[in-house]
UniProtKB/TrEMBL annotation:
PANTHER family: PHOSPHOMEVALONATE KINASE (PTHR31814:SF2), PTHR31814. Residues 145-210 form the GHMP kinase N-terminal domain. Its EC number is 2.7.4.2. This is Phosphomevalonate kinase. InterPro entries: Erg8, GHMP_kinase_N_dom, Phosphomevalonate_kinase, Ribosomal_Su5_D2-typ_SF, Ribsml_uS5_D2-typ_fold_subgr. It catalyses: (R)-5-phosphomevalonate + ATP = (R)-5-diphosphomevalonate + ADP. GO terms for cellular component: peroxisome. GO terms for molecular function: ATP binding; phosphomevalonate kinase activity. It comes from the Eukaryota. Belongs to the GHMP kinase family. Mevalonate kinase subfamily.
Length: 477
């Protein structure tokens, strides 16, 4: 039986760099762009074959085969594509060793990825028969199509792990606790093997669990497994993998956390690009050169990050406890920009109390940015470079904006605003330089200030892995 699964993309709103250290938490939101995997399975006699197809990309087909009766050596994966896909390969290899199949199958997993993961230059659009899914077809191989920073490799590894588990694990449901833990742990191992390094894993965690406050796993768990794997027989590697995936406490934390109703994020793509690994090494080098000062910065930034999480959670509680007051509060936001919100506290005690939760959000975003700029200045890494500072400050002048940050590692890739949902279209309109709008006060906004940013059609969608409807993919397979 064919099944379809999906996993979301991500934006790390708070906790870049800090999340590399298991002592600190981060806040990562899952986004509406998703990666899908459609399975097709038949029984086979001689050998097992797993083909991963990614039809949106030129030469997007990778085939792996292995023999289940070979008990002496780790399973051998043979690829039939001259261009390898390290992420698909590591996922298949890890999963097959984890499961150690007892039956041969011919498996095909077809991958589809939503448009926002990659630039769409020179693409053609294909729709499913019922029109509910539309994907862009590229003319180049996957590794030559520019990415947008949404975590495509984490999406691929997570959804492929889920798809393969659904074939090998009887009665597999993707959303119970045990399945999610298996998906997460296997995907983290495979992602680290493919990347040849152990990262913080926030992207795989968000692809699995959705929007979360995330604290990373203990890296030694994976480094130890990987460093020993080539010395082990199939049987021993399989046993080690089972032990690490199912019986080891990874000490990672994933607490559900999403934006309150009426609040949205607005992601802006900024013409530019950044080298994350270089920035990470600059930041870590500064941290080890100046342990005391950097500890102060880490602590202050962490306080600001957690204040943002707390104020969003408190707002969510208000939306549940007093929906009427909440909706009045949220609808008032479209009439204020950041400076005006901060000013509200000085109007009267009543205003200060009414807008307290919103003022807290605004202040925590400002504090996050302050400490990110200190990190920028001290480490030499362009985390919030001056161009982004100017752009974010300009965004703060637009009504309905509560603030914005450079997500993830920062740099010149993107900005992410937290805004009132009801203001989205007016924010887009007032920043695209297109001209008049009757109900907007644009007098103070020079629209050329926003020339570098193009707003992306993305919203928070808090779910992690999901099972999708096969009907929605008919006509694309
Ligand atoms: N749709 C897809 N089909 C097949 N392989 C994919 C797909 N998307 C991503 N991949 C794999 O992931 C690789 C990209 O991973 P890389 O680590 O370079 O980017 P990333 O850090 O995930 O990037 P970004 O966060 O910008 O999406 C591709 O070269 C390919 O191996
Ligand atoms: C700098 C870092 O903390 C975040 C990188 O985030 P992004 O890839 O820029 O979304 C690195 C990591 O967590 O692996």
């Amino acid at each position: 039986m064919s099944r379809v699964f999906s996993a979301p993309s991500k934006a790390l709103l708070a906790g870049g760099y800090l999340v590399l250290d298991p002592a600190y938490s981060s806040f990562v939101t899952a986004l509406s762009a998703r990666m899908y995997a459609v399975t097709s399975v038949e029984e086979a006699n001689e050998a097992s074959v797993i083909r991963v197809e990614s039809p949106q990309f030129e030469s997007g087909s990778w085939e792996y085969s292995f023999r289940i009766d070979d008990s002496q050596i780790p399973l051998v994966i043979t690829e039939k594509n001259s261009k390898r896909n390290p992420f698909a390969e590591a996922t298949v290899h890890t999963l097959v060793n984890y499961v150690k199949p007892t039956q041969n199958y011919r498996i095909k997993v077809t991958i589809f990825s939503d448009s926002e993961y990659h630039t769409q230059d020179g693409t053609r659009l294909e729709s499913s028969t019922n029109g509910s899914k539309k994907f862009h077809w590229h003319t180049k191989p996957i590794d030559q199509v520019p990415k947008t920073g949404l975590g495509s490799s984490a999406g691929l590894v997570t959804v492929l792990t889920t798809a393969l588990l659904s074939i090998y694990v009887p009665n597999f449901k993707c959303n119970d606790e045990r399945s999610l833990l298996q998906i997460h742990n296997v995907a983290q191992i495979a992602h680290c093997i493919a990347q040849k390094k152990v990262g913080s894993g926030f992207d795989v965690a968000a692809a699995t669990y959705g929007s979360i406050v995330y604290r990373r796993f203990e890296p030694a768990i994976i480094t130890q497994l990987v460093s020993e794997s080539h010395l082990l027989s199939l049987e021993d590697y399989h046993r080690e993998l089972r032990k690490v995936v199912l019986d080891t406490d990874w000490h990672f934390v994933t607490e559900k956390c999403s934006l309150p109703k009426g609040i949205r994020i607005l992601m802006g793509d900024v013409a530019g690009g950044s080298e994350t690994p270089k920035m990470v090494s600059q930041v870590l080098a500064w941290r080890s050169q100046k342990p005391e000062y950097s500890h102060e910065v880490w602590t202050s930034l962490n306080t600001a990050n957690m204040a943002l999480v707390d104020s969003l959670q408190n707002l969510k509680l208000l939306s549940e406890s007093d929906p009427h007051a909440y909706s009045e509060l949220i609808s008032a936001l479209q009439t204020y920009n950041v400076a005006q919100i901060k000013n509200l506290a000085s109007f009267s005690v009543d205003y200060a109390a009414r807008f307290e939760l919103i003022i807290n959000i605004v202040h925590s975003i400002e504090n996050i940015r302050h400490w990110m700029r200190v990190m920028t200045r001290e480490s030499g890494a362009s985390i919030e470079p001056s161009e982004q500072t100017i752009l974010l400050n300009n965004c703060n002048t637009v009504k309905g904006v509560l603030g914005g940050v450079v997500p993830g590692a920062g740099g010149y890739d993107a900005i992410c605003l937290i805004v009132a949902a009801s203001s989205i279209s007016s924010i887009i309109e007032s920043t695209k330089g297109s001209g008049e709008s009757s109900n907007l006060d644009l007098s103070s906004i020079n629209k050329h200030q926003f020339d570098r940013v193009s707003w992306l059609d993305l919203t928070e969608q808090q779910d992690g892995v999901l099972e999708e409807n096969l009907e929605d993919f008919k006509g694309l397979l």
